[in-house]
Design a protein that fits this description.
alpha/beta; Cobalt-precorrin-4 Transmethylase, domain 1
């Protein structure tokens, strides 16, 4: 039987991509808790925004809930997700005598601390972020109601009331578009010249690195695939960054079953990256799916080296060492 040759396809594989240190820490926290204490381990909210990861942990015995009142009285571990939680959540866990484990990403905790410090100094806080995102809900919940104003767009900056800029500070969600955020921060500084910002930008290293990588390949490819979940902020931002950088087609996909093959007809070059909560196996499966239809050559495009590591939450560390 004569097999027709496959057309060639160059896959530009972005590096860095996929899991960041905060995501690795959060997933490891759930798996370590399961190893030490057995099932069930309760997790408030998705530990990270990736359905594949959540389903895998469910199979291992993790039980995901949106609120603590869904959890029965239990001695089992109760883990808070990487996105961070309002202060009311650990307090509610304490009142119910839960064995609480905080898997909040240390870079999100840094934003919480910044907001608290500036509040103690008498400043009103402006939070640049997306309404309703768990990280934003958690940051808003670090301070008394009314202490933090949410700013989502440049238009929001213009709509802010007249405020004393000597008594203002801003923080940002960690998973935003670097370019969008810089525009909003510039608008804040123009309107409130004396506003105080963080000593080091709040957008995390992984978000920045993945956006820089996709910018580099967006114009070189006929299409761009961002592997990630639709509810993942950093994955959505990657798709938007690719489009702004000139990508002819850019799509966010979690699994190979979501591929619309008609979208990729005639392509010769495909760029692939992955959001910070997407496991590498999903990237590999994506490449394999294209290799069934094309003769694939993979070229890795590296724009940064990542060596960041965050230790497990303190109440899991000693046990992990043993």
């Amino acid at each position: 039987m004569i097999q027709l040759s496959k057309p060639p396809l160059t896959v530009l594989l972005c590096a860095p991509r996929g899991f960041c240190a905060g995501v690795v820490r959060a997933i490891d926290a759930v798996e370590q808790a399961l190893k030490l204490h057995g099932a069930p381990v309760y997790v408030r909210h998705e530990i990270v925004h990736n359905r594949y990861v959540v389903d895998d942990l469910k199979r291992k015995g993790a039980v995901f809930v949106e609120e603590l009142d869904e959890i029965p009285d239990t001695d089992a571990p109760v883990i808070f997700s990487a996105h961070g939680v309002p202060k009311s959540v650990p307090e509610a866990a304490r009142q119910r005598n839960f064995f609480a484990i905080d898997a909040t990403c240390p870079l999100v905790t840094k934003v919480h601390r910044e907001a608290e410090i500036q509040h103690k100094r008498g400043r009103k806080i402006l939070l640049v972020g997306h309404a309703g995102h768990p990280e934003v809900v958690g940051t808003l919940g670090q301070l008394p109601a009314g202490s933090v104003l949410l700013v989502e767009t440049i238009a929001d900056v213009a709509a802010l009331p007249d405020l004393d800029d000597t008594e203002l500070a801003f923080v940002t969600q960690t998973t935003l578009s670097v370019d969008d955020t810089s525009e909003i921060i510039n608008a804040l500084r123009q309107r409130f010249p004396a506003i105080v910002g963080p000593h080091k930008e709040d957008i995390c290293y992984a978000t920045t690195n993945r956006q820089e990588a996709i910018k580099k390949v967006a114009l070189l490819a006929d299409a761009v695939i961002v592997v990630g979940s639709p509810n993942s902020s950093n994955s959505q931002r990657l798709r938007e960054v690719a489009e702004r950088a000139g990508a002819k087609k850019a799509v966010l996909l979690l699994r190979t079953t979501e591929i619309d093959w008609s979208m990729f007809e005639g392509i010769r070059t495909l760029a692939i990256t992955a959001g910070a909560s997407a496991p590498e196996i999903l990237v590999e499966q994506m490449i394999d799916a294209f290799a069934e239809r094309w003769s694939v050559t993979v070229e890795t495009v590296t724009t940064a080296d990542e060596s960041v590591f965050f230790p497990l939450p303190r109440n899991l560390r000693g046990a992990a060492a043993e």
